[in-house]
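Appendix B. Raw example, untouched.
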Amino acid sequence: MLFRSTLATTFILWTWYGMEKKKYALVWTMVILAWFTKENVPLITGAIGFYFFLKGDRRHGGTLFALSGAWFLLVYKGIMPYFRTGQHFAESYYSSNIVENLMRLFSEESFKYLYLLTFPLLFIPFLAPQFLLLALPEWLIILLSSNENMRQLQYHYTALLT
C-alpha cells in the first residue's frame, strides 16, 4: 500500500511540473500513471486541473478536471463495485449525517492531526491556502473518516498530502 502511495505522490508532482512548464505529453503520461496507483488520486489531479483552469489554462486545466472526475466515477462506481461485488469497503467509514460529519471535521482529533502534519513545517503551508485547497479532497477523505488510522502519521494515508 505504501509503495503505491509513494508512486502516486511522485506522479502528481511530475503532473504539476508538466502543467507549469506546459509539457502536456508529460502531464498526461504522469496523470495516467497516477490514476492507476489509488482510486482517490483522480480527486487530486482534478483539483490540479481546476487550479490551472482558474489560473488561465482553460483548455488543459478544464480537460484534466473533467477527465479526472470521469475516471474517479468510473473507478469508484463502476470498476471497483464490479470486482468487489458490492460497495467500496471504505464507504462504511463515512456518515451521511451532516451533523456527525461536522463533529468529525471540527473534532479535537482532527485539529491534532493537522497540527502534527504541519508543525514540522512550522505551519508554513497555511501561508499559501490556495495550494492547501489542492489537497482538500484528500483532507476531507481523512478528516471525515471514522477510521482513526487515517489520522495517524505513520500510515500511508498522509502520502498524498505530502
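End of appendix B.
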